[in-house]
Amino acid sequence: MIEKTLVVLKPDAVKAGLERQIISRYQKAGLHVVKRKEVIPDRKLADNHYAATEPQIVGMGHKTLSSAKELGKFEEMVELFGTDDPRKIGEELREWSLQFISSGKVVAFILEGEDAIKTVRRITGFTDPTKADAGTIRADMSKDSISKANFERRACENLVHASGDPEEAKREIALWFGMEEV
User: What range defines the domain where residue 6 resides?
Assistant: First the structure.
């Protein structure tokens, strides 16, 4: 099925000059760039991009605490955030993401092709670059980790945002490029 999806190269990717390398990986998989846009996101765009639904916020907090337990750093993480409440942790993580995406120029793309969303997600890799499969953008090009970022009280610099499902792709394309592009 031919789909459209959104990819945003975050400030770390743009600053590192990785645009051509990253986009070529998607193109080699048969995806086509439909639109491209450079912007420094303002707070409103960032706030709408990182939608603040209760399940997303609580989910981020739960993932952070679960990861801290796996790493044997749960007590340190609780001390860092001053709580073990997943909602409060998720709110802080979201704020770091808002600050990061607004910290410099980003490049947004609409990509189109066969199973575009699934293809982009596979090529992009897992959110945490240290846990992403070899051969993915995040594993090959990013040097950050979520754990390191959390302890430094900042967003993980993982180069790329990719829409996760068809509804998110539609919402994000409309947000970044307008409804006529959906």
Answer: 1-40+105-143+156-182
d(CA 62, CA 57): 9
Query: Which pLDDT tens digit goes with each residue over 114-149?
Result: 999 999 999 999 999 999 999 999 999 999 998 899
pLDDT in tens, 85-103: 999 999 999 999 999 999 9
The predicted model scores a pTM of: 0.92
Residue 78 lies in a domain: no
Q: Is 62 a catalytic residue?
A: no
Catalytic residue among 32, 49, 62, 161: 161
Is residue 99 situated within a structural domain? no
Q: What is the CATH number of the domain that holds 3?
A: 3.30.70.141
